[in-house]
Amino acid sequence: MRVTVRAHPCPEGDGRVQWVLLGAAPEGAPPGEPDAVLTEAARRDAALKEWAYVQSPIATAVYDRDLRLTGANGEMVRLSGRPEEAMLGLQLTEIFPGAPFDEFGRLMAEVLRTGETLRTDTFFRAPGQSRKRAWATFFTPLKDGDGRVQGVSIAALDRTEPHRARQRLAMVNDAGARIGTTLDVGRTAEELAEVTTGAFADLVSVDLLDSVLHGADAAGGSGPGGGPEDTGAGGPDAEPVRRAAARSVLGGLPGEPGGAFSYAPHSPPAEALASGLSSLHRAEAAAIAAWADGGGPGLSRCLGGKGVHSVLAVPLGARGATLGVALFVRHPGTEPFDADDLLLAGEIAARAGVCVDNARRYAVERSVALTLQRSLLPGRLPEPTAVEVTSRYLPAGAQAGVGGDWFDVIPLSGARVALVVGDVVGHGLQASAVMGRLRAAVRTLADLDLPPDELLTHLDDLVVQLAQDQQDQAAERLPGTVRETGATCLYVVYDPVSRSCVLARAGHPAPVLVTPGGTARFLDIPGGPPLGLGGLPFESAELRLPEGSLLALYTDGLVESHDHDIGAGLDGLRTALSGPAAPLEQTCDAVLDALLPRRPERPKDDIALLLARTRALDASQVRSWDLPAERSTVAEARKFASEQLTAWGLEELGFTTELVVSELVTNAVRHAYAPIRLRLIRERSSLICEVSDASSTSPRMRRARVTDEGGRGLLLVAQLTERWGTRFTAEGKTIWAQQPLAAAG
C-alpha cells in the first residue's frame, strides 16, 4: 500500500492551519495513477457540497466578476419564476429590471469593489410569488486563495413571520396610543376603524349596541359577552346595534352612522355579540353576502362588490359586558387572515372596548352631573326691581367634564338684590354636588342679610368643613388619597334706593363695570383668598353706581383659553362690553362671540356669565319718617302710613299696612332705642314696610298662651304679609315686612 501526502500551502504568516490530504493506492501502482481513496472522498465531498447548495431552503445565486449569473439553487429558481438556463450569463438587472433589483445591482457592484459583505431588508413580491414578503438579502464577496474577489453570492432569507410579528406589535402599540384619545363613544369607534384600515384590514366596520351609543348601561350577563344566554344569536330578543364607524381602502364605505338594525340570526357578527368570542371566516363574497344583507346600511353592497375572502368578527367588550362588534375584511390580493391575526384583532378590540366603556361610563356620569347642575342652577332668573338681569351658562366639553360654576340672583329686603357668581375646583359629580351645597348656603346666608365680607367668611368655614369631610371619606375608601375642595366666589349687594353697591370676592376675577356712557373698567376691589383656606379675612368695597350702570360677573372659563393668556381674555371682555348700551341679551351674545369664536369643540372649562343693569327707585317711590321713642308715636306712624298709601292709590292695603306699622313701631318703642325710623317702599310688585331702631336685639315670633295679653304681634305680621324678617346694620337693626301689590287690585 502506497500512502500519498499532498500539502496545500497557505499564505505565509496569515495564521491559518495548513490543509493536508492523505491518499492510498496499491503497492506497485504507477506513481501517476490517482489515489483511489482520495478520488472517492473528493467525489463524495463535492456531491455533498452540491446538494447543500442546490437543496438549501435559503435562496442562493452566484455571480462572476462581471456580475453575470453562473448558477442558482432550487429555491432561488423557484422564487425567480424562470428556469436557470434562461438566466445564466445575465446580470440581475437584465433578468429583473426595476425595483428593488436596481438597488440590488448597485449593492453587488459595491461588494465586488470593497470585498465587504452587505445586507438589506426589503418587502416586495418576488417574481415567482403571488404576494409580498419580507426578505433579508445578503451580498457576500467570493474570494480566491489570494483574497481576490472573483464573484458575488446572493442569499435571500424569508423574514416574513418576524416582520409580521413586529408589525403586529407596532399595531398594538399604535392602537394603544391612538384609540381612546377622547371620552366620546363615537369618536373612539372611529379611531378603531382608522387605526386598523389599511394596516390590518381592507374594510372595517364598528357596530355598537344602541344602548351604548345612547349612554345607557350595556347588557350584563354571566356569559363571556354578558349577553342573553337563553336566546339565539341575533334572535328577536337581541338588542339592535348602530353603525358607529366604517372605513375602506377601496372607497364605498358600508354606510354612515344611522338607524338601528340587527344582524341575521347565527351570522358571525350575531354570534360574536351573543357569545363574546371572536371568529375567523374564509368564504367567497356570495357566502358572506347571505348574512351581510341584514348588516346595516350598505354592508352587503360593499362586500359583494369588492369580493371577500377573509372576515374576522370580533366583539368589543369590557368588564364582562359586550358593547358591540367589529368586522375586519380582506379582499383578494392581500394575505388571508390567520390565527395570529385573530389574536391581534382580539387584542386591539379589547383595548378599544375598554375605551368605549370608559367613554360610555363618562357619558352617563356627565349626563347625571349636567342634570344635577341644571337642577341646582336657577331655571329662571327673578325679575327684581333693583336690576335687569340676564345670564349664559355653557358646560365644559366632554373631555374636561362638567364643572362647578354657578350664579344666582337673590332678592333681599328693602328692594335690594344680591348677585352671586362662583366656581368650584374640579369637575364631575363631586364638583356639581359641592356647587349645590355652596349655592344653598349662600341663599341661606343672604336671607340673614349678612354683609358681603361676613357672608364669605361663613362660606369659607363651610368649604373648610366640606374639604375635611371629603378627605375623611376618601381616606376610608383609599388610604393616602388626597382630594382637594376649594372654590372662588364674588358676592355683590345693590340697593336701588341709595344706589349703593357693596362687593366682596374670594379669589374670584373682578367684575366689569360699564358706565351709562359706555366706558368699561374692572373694579378695583380686594381680591381675598379662595374659599377653603380658612382663617383669612375678606374685605368689602362700596361704591355708588349711576342708574343704568352695567355689572358683568363671570367665571374664569370665559377669559382663559389654551390659545391665549388670561390678560388677553380680560382685554377682550372689556372691549366687548364697551360702547353704547344695548339690550342685555344682545350684549351677552356679543361677549360670547368675541371671546369664544364659533368652534366645533366645547369649551375646556365651564363658563358662567351674569349681566345686571342697575335701576334706581324714584324719590316718589320711597317715604321715610323719623319717630320719637314715645307711645304716642304709634298712632302718628299709622297716620303717616295711611296718608302715603292714599297718595300712592293703595288704599286697599291700608288696613293691613296699619296693623303691620302699629306692631313694628310698638315693638321698637317698648324694646329698642332711638332713633326710630319708619320707611315705606313701593316696588313694581310689592309694598315694603320697614322700622329701624338702635337696638341689636332681634325679635322672635312665639306662640302666646290663652292667658297672655301680648306676644301675638309678629305672628299677626307673618300671617298678613308675604315675607318678613330682620337685618342688622351698623346702627342697629331693621325689621321689614313685604306685601304683594296684587292684593291691592
TrEMBL record:
InterPro entries: Bact_Sigma-Reg, GAF, GAF-like_dom_sf, HATPase_C_sf, HATPase_dom, PAS, PAS-like_dom_sf, PAS_4
Keywords, sorted A to Z: Hydrolase
Bias-annotated ranges (Gly residues): 218-235
A UniProt-annotated Pfam family: PAS_4
Domain GAF: 180-366
Keyword Hydrolase applies: yes
Residue segments, region Disordered: 217-239
Location of the PPM-type phosphatase domain: 387-614
UniProt-listed PANTHER family: STAGE II SPORULATION PROTEIN E (PTHR43156:SF2), STAGE II SPORULATION PROTEIN E-RELATED (PTHR43156)
Full protein name: SpoIIE family protein phosphatase
Gene source species: Streptomyces aureoversilis
